[in-house]
Amino acid sequence: MLCLGVISPSVFAQSFDQNFQEWKAKQQMYDQKLNVSKPSHSYGSKNSYTKSSNDSTGQIHLNQATVNEFQQLKGVGEKKAQAIVEYRQKNGSFKNIDEIKNVKGIGPAIFEKNKSRLAL
């Protein structure tokens, strides 16, 4: 004999909610494994879709930073920041942080003020 019963709506809602929560937890774990990061939204910049290069220690990564991120450095405005990005595009990745002194407008004084925040 086959017996069919009616599932109450509250049982269905609990089951759905529990399944959703399990799926959401698994998805978050998967995303963490992928180390998914959101792009920076520095609209108007040539590098507006570059991921943020400003890590939790406040360092600026020379080979990834956007114009807006370079402007966070002491003594670096929009023109100098753009010059750094253009130098990187023309000459390739920086090999060491001292190389930033080759950028027009970035002299020893600006370098000394910021060297603790610079990283590759």
Automatic annotation (TrEMBL):
Q: Which Gene3D superfamilies match?
A: AF1531-like domain
Q: What are this entry's molecular-function GO terms?
A: DNA binding
Report any one BP term from Gene Ontology.
Answer: DNA repair
Q: Where is the Helix-hairpin-helix DNA-binding motif class domain?
A: 68-87, 98-117
- Gene Ontology cellular-component terms listed: type II protein secretion system complex
Instruction: List the residue ranges forming a coiled coil, or say none.
Output: none
Q: What's the name of the protein?
A: Competence ComEA helix-hairpin-helix repeat region domain protein
Q: List the top taxonomic levels of the source.
A: Bacteria, Pseudomonadati, Pseudomonadota, Gammaproteobacteria, Moraxellales
